[in-house]
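note to self: dont lose this again. the chain is below, predicted strucutre after it. 258 aa total, dont forget to put it in the shared folder this time
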Amino acid sequence: MTSRVLRFEDWTNPVPPVRREVLSALPHPDEGQPPVLFVPGLGHGAWAFREHWLGHVASRGFAGYALSHRKQGSLRAYVHDVVQVAAGLPRQTVLVGHGVGALVVAHALARYPARAAVLVAPVLHGWSALGAALRANPRGTLPAFFGGGLRLSREQLFRADLPAADGYVGRLVRAPSAVYRSLLAAPEPADPVGDPPMLVVGSPDDRVVTRKALDRAAARYGGAPLLFPGMGHDLMLDGGWQEPMDAILDWLVKQLAV
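---
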């Protein structure tokens, strides 16, 4: 199912096609549940969901998919890719965005009638997120104010006792400076089409997204955030990753039963 997939700008200035990386984990048997499409934040790729969440959603009966962002792009291009991948899946899709991926999902919802949507540690306002990052990691954040790359630190993303943290940080990549400019200049997302149920998930100990930002994001979509104290920004990789994923799926099952 698609809606508002094509707009005037898509005709006059189309997003260049690329080969997209989409990883998947499928349930056996397939019981007809809506697929779940994960959208990563900056520096991350589909691999960040393959570590734990993709297989876990499949074990709970949902087909899981994870998209990597194109190497050269913009917020508009990222949104285009999410809409196109979601529209190509066999059923109306649940969109789950993490970090800046949540901003991409929020914009994609204005063009694709998702079955439901989850914003995980959402970065919906670039300048406020940069301010929080600057306080936690000034050396890695300052270059982003001048067109350079943002370098996220272990301390921003994970709890202190996660053995695999250094390996995960080593897999992060720098997004092009054009992406940062498009994010900082991004308008507010339009209202979602189809009025899908939405959930905001995060941690009060996140050093990228503040508690106030989580409350603001949840209020924007008519609810309160679901919080997991003690976890870092990367809930899908941090210790205790199963708890937020199970909570998301439990919420989703209730929404599907309505």
